[in-house]
Amino acid sequence: MQEAISITDSADLILKPDEAKRTSELLIDHLRHWQGLRQMSMDANVKRWRFRPKHHYIEHTALSLPRVRLNPRCTACFQDESFLGAIRQIAIRCNANNVLLRLFQRVLLNLGQRWHETRQSS
After folding, report:
1. H or E element, residue 7
2. What DSSP line would sit under 38-97, residue for residue?
3. Distance of alpha carbon 103 from alpha carbon 90, whole angstroms
4. What is the C-alpha to C-alpha distance for residues 34 and 25, in angstroms, rounded to an integer?
5. 8 Å CB contact between 61 and 95
6. What CA–CA distance (Å, rounded) separates 56 from 27?
């Protein structure tokens, strides 16, 4: 995975054919290794290495990469996903009757605390 990230970090928006092919191979290898680790943990009755939604995304990206050659580092939206995850963590702790109001209040409090800490540290 590290080599695939290195290739895509140093490449342009459109990958060269050899970069796209190599990155695709590396991503498929990464998924196979992850799958093997998952199988070993299931055989040992240990809950580790579960499949994440990104596993499916990486598979589709790897399979289409040699044909499309579009650099996935330029098109991925993982920051948006982590923001949605943070919002979800706040929302699940709110009462269903007033979830929107409490969600916005808590997000504003969180942002206010971050700005305050940033201001104090600079």
Report:
1. helix 2-10
2. HHHHHHTT---S---HHHHHHHHHHHHHHHH-B-HHHH--HHHHHHHHHHHHHHTTS-GG
3. 6
4. 14
5. no
6. 11
Is the separation of the CB atoms in 13 and 75 below 8 Å? no
Q: What is the pLDDT of residues 92-115, one digit of tens each?
A: 888 889 999 998 998 899 889 888
Tokens 């498929």 correspond to what residue?
28
Tokens of 18: 């050899």
Q: Residue 65's pLDDT band (boundaries 50, 70, 90)?
A: very high
pLDDT of residue 4: 92
Question: Could you tell me which residue, 97 or 53, shows the higher pLDDT?
Answer: 97
CA atoms of 29 and 44, how far apart (whole Å): 23
What is the C-alpha separation between 69 and 43, in angstroms, rounded?
37
